[in-house]
């Protein structure tokens, strides 16, 4: 995908291309927040030690552990966003792959219009019109694949995005609440000059808080309202999966090196996309004169 | 404070100075994440519109609103961290202001040692020893102020930090859960070529989800275990607040342009820092010969 950067994008995928790029910056910001947070925690522990105050030293060291885990969660979040971004790319790739089909259809239409004006009796017009029917059929498949992929992957992408948001939030709440328990172990009663602070007596409690936090993190499981998808019924051809009897008819794969998995299988039956074709022939065979009702 | 950047820090405040600087980077990362997130949301809405799919357009537009609010919360978080950072600066400033007191005490000690070696009978030794007693008394006050400020402000700073973490998390969970409800309104049942998608019928439900999210945000209130502080009994002199009868004695303010609020008031009574001083004189007056038990 990296090679697509800087290369002119097809019109259709330009917007999503830009979103995916911006998301990369957002993810970078979270990674950077994570790194900073983690680097601060050891500094905090060092500072606490340097105060020479046993209580401050112990508390700041353990605060550092919790804050470091808070920072780790920012990185987990960033990685989850990376997965979400990958799903957006699947929409973008389909968009890119549909563009040539649109262009092809438009180009043949233009050629016919031009020819009808210049040479209204040219026999090439009939040939081009047959070609147009095929191009339109192919494009219909492409557009169906696009809407199918767009809706399914949009749901999937933001399902992941929101799940990642909730995961980070729930884990950070647990950590922050343990952090607050830790702070309660620090006695901030002011002293008068010459007083010595009593020894820190909460070492084992502080240790226990870290253990509790660790256990909470380990036991955390997502608790989400599911987002049901009807797209599970979608076949590898990005069409509704059906009990088809036909074999692969229209191949829509391989446009300009795009992922080759996009294939429209020929199917039969009432809801099949071939239902408007007279007879049972597969659509868009080179010599077919399909009777598609085109929009 | 900005003017302190790049200026050599007293040894005592070097570590915290670095932490405060690193926190600035972390805060910057959250601000940047917020900006990116918010910029993406309008792009998402534009993209949805460009798909020409009414359902995708409506859902992506409203997803954009929720994502934008998620982004705003990153910025609120960053601003809260800025407040936390301000509290760390209070510790750092006290550290900076205590350094000269330590240095002064050490310097007089050195001079005495040098003089005792070179001119053991010098009358200046007596004078310097009186000065040392005063310097030590002053430093005792400074160190008490430092430990009082350190403990109180450490608690306060991380109280704020964790409260900010919990606030962002709780609000983002609400928003993300509403986002998931929104996704459920998008039908991703795959279609066959030539099919037209049914009209989007969930417009009012989608609108309602945004209203719910808005209301949840408005009604959110922090629900935190309090972190009690005993430092509320601390006076403006950074010492235990007491029913004192004395007036301000030792002034500890104004070291190298540091905030001038640090003053040690003279107090009386059993737990007062003047309890070891014979008589009722305030400590560290230029001519006093305090009987402090020094460490």
TrEMBL record, chains A, B:
Gene Ontology CC terms: eisosome filament; plasma membrane
For this UniProt record, the keywords arranged alphabetically read as follows: Coiled coil, Phosphoprotein
Classification via Pfam families: Pil1 (PF13805)
Q: Name one GO biological process term.
A: endocytosis
Q: Which residues form a coiled coil?
A: 125-152
Q: Where is this region: Disordered?
A: 249-295
Please indicate which superkingdom the organism of origin belongs to: Eukaryota
- Compositional bias, Polar residues, is annotated for 265-295
Record-level Gene Ontology MF annotations: lipid binding
InterPro entries in the record, alphabetically? AH/BAR_dom_sf, PIL1/LSP1
Q: Which PANTHER family match?
A: PRIMARY COMPONENT OF EISOSOMES (EUROFUNG), SPHINGOLIPID LONG CHAIN BASE-RESPONSIVE PROTEIN PIL1
Q: Name it.
A: Sphingolipid long chain base-responsive protein LSP1
Which organism's genome codes for this protein? Lepraria neglecta
